[in-house]
Design brief:
Arc Repressor Mutant, subunit A; 310 residues; alpha/beta; D-Maltodextrin-Binding Protein, domain 2; rod-shaped; two-stranded parallel sheet; eight-stranded mixed beta sheet
């Protein structure tokens, strides 16, 4: 059976060898000299060979035996390997290193996460992050397939996702988006029935209208566009109007306006989605706690009717 070598004994051996004496090693270890001597004797007993020559009265220096000379670099390597592992695990536990994977819906990815992540990694410069930006259904699928540690999305039909847990973080209101020169753009708020006479464009968030008074709009839409970039281009061209949550409204647009939909008032909750009864890596747990501690939880309001450049 191989001997079980203690790291503390290896350190004592290296210090005695490098400092050429038991007394100096005892001072470095903040131990008594007899304690260091006992530590070395126990190490020698485990190895089955003496590490130091017998000392004589003429010299207080500790001289290595041939066996000790061979063992010295091996002991240093063992200590270095131990320290690297200990350091890596400590950093991992403190979310300062490792690999974190997350996915988010585009609205939060572009609006909230840049600031959150930039602040989070200030104390984790060696942390590697893989980030995926996709619609809510795709984010949930990535969480389910364990492609990511957790996701940020709305949880459609929560009863269909009993294997997942959802922590709401953000809430925003659904409104109508159209060109700023559109007749609806001057309204302070809108009733869903006022949209019937306009060309409607559906998108991935249109399902927020399901189960509400405005659900008939879903069957009245003439177009469906899943990609946000294409949707914005069509809206800016004046192809029609659509409904979007406030966070998803392209505020960088120079030509679009957002008008709150108040009859009915429709809101969505966006939050953290993770698999239930599944432990996460320390870095992922730390980021979740950081998001919860540093994110506001606004109630749905009535955003000002404004152009994207405001």
């Amino acid at each position: 059976m191989s001997p079980e070598l203690k790291i503390a004994q290896l350190r004592h051996f290296v210090w005695v060898a490098e400092l050429k004496g038991f007394h100096a090693a005892a001072e470095k270890a903040h131990r008594t000299q007899p304690a260091i001597s006992l530590s070395i004797k126990d190490l020698e007993h485990k190895l089955g060979e003496p590490l130091f020559e017998k000392r004589n009265a003429k010299s207080s220096n500790a001289e290595l035996t041939p066996y000790g000379q061979y063992f010295l670099p091996q002991a240093k390597e063992l200590i270095a390997h131990h320290d690297r592992i200990a350091q890596d695990m400590m950093l991992l536990a403190e979310h300062r290193t490792g690999h974190l994977r997350l996915a988010s819906v585009p609205s939060i990815a572009s609006r909230m996460l840049p600031e959150i992540l930039s602040r989070f990694i200030e104390n984790a410069p060696d942390l590697h992050i893989s980030f995926y930006d996709d619609n809510a259904s795709a984010v949930l699928q990535m969480v389910e397939n364990r492609q990511v540690d957790f996701g940020i999305a709305s949880l459609w039909q929560a009863n269909e996702h009993s294997d997942k847990s959802f922590i709401p973080v953000w809430e925003d209101q659904v409104g109508v988006v159209c060109r700023s020169d559109h007749p609806l753009a001057d309204c302070a708020e809108l009733n869903w029935e006022s949209l019937r006479e306009h060309r409607l464009i559906g998108n991935g968030t249109s399902r927020l209208l399901e189960g509400t008074e405005a659900e008939p709009l879903l069957s009245a839409r003439q177009f469906y566009i899943s990609n946000m970039i294409s949707l914005v281009a069509m809206l800016e061209q004046g192809l029609g109007v659509t409904t979007l949550p406030w966070f998803a409204f392209p505020r960088e647009s120079q030509t679009l306006s957002f008008i709150p939909l108040t009859k009915p008032s429709v809101t969505r909750q966006i939050g953290i989605v993770r698999m239930s009864n599944r432990s996460l890596p320390p870095a992922a747990e730390a980021l979740i706690n950081f998001i919860l501690d540093n994110s506001q939880h606004p109630c749905p309001g009535k955003p000002d009717n404004q152009r994207g450049s405001d």
